[in-house]
Design the sequence.
């Protein structure tokens, strides 16, 4: 029973990446999960409830590692690179496409809290880091939250712009982006 449930949720996630919520049907989900469509309804009720359960139960939401502050070297360039690398390690093109698929009008209000977990957690880490760097008198920033949002916006922008690139191209472009973005932020903050 648990395997069936897990397979249905995995099929749902995969189909959201492929088709988006609106174009995904319960027939598609059943076919991909290799179950009868009635099983989908019996397990979850509606397509919307299936999606919301998938969001609640599935381990898809990227989060910042709890030990990231222990790994900081308190050198702006190295630490911003580490934050960006961690973000891109977790927020893969597939996760971005999944996130895009969750933006259907009929489910947006229910999915928004799940979608916002990613930016909220990363912005908070960047903001806390910048405040600590300011306390250490390494940098001066008038508004750490705004600066954190700006840094994060560049990261999410890159991720969304490259969500459909090939894996090889994405890896190559990601390395260049991190290097250039960090250099620009460091030059702007110092």
Sequence:
């Amino acid at each position: 029973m648990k395997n069936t449930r897990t397979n249905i949720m995995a099929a749902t996630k995969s189909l959201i990446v492929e088709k988006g919520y609106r174009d995904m049907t319960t027939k598609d989900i059943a076919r991909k999960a290799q179950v009868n469509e009635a099983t989908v309804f019996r397990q979850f009720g509606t397509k919307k409830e299936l999606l919301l359960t998938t969001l609640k139960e599935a381990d898809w939401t990227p989060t910042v590692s709890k030990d990231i502050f222990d790994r900081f070297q308190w050198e702006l360039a190295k630490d911003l690179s580490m934050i960006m690398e961690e973000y891109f390690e977790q927020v893969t093109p597939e996760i971005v496409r999944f996130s895009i698929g969750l933006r259907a009008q009929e489910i947006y209000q229910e999915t928004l809290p799940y979608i916002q977990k990613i930016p909220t957690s990363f912005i908070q880490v960047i903001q806390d880091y910048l405040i600590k760097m300011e306390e250490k008198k390494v940098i001066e920033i008038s508004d750490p939250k705004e600066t954190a949002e700006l840094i994060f916006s560049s990261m999410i922008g890159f991720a969304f712009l490259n969500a459909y690139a090939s894996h090889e191209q994405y890896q190559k472009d990601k390395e260049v982006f991190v290097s250039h973005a960090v250099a620009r932020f460091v030059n702007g903050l110092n």
Notes: Residues 55 and 154 are 26 Å apart (CA to CA).
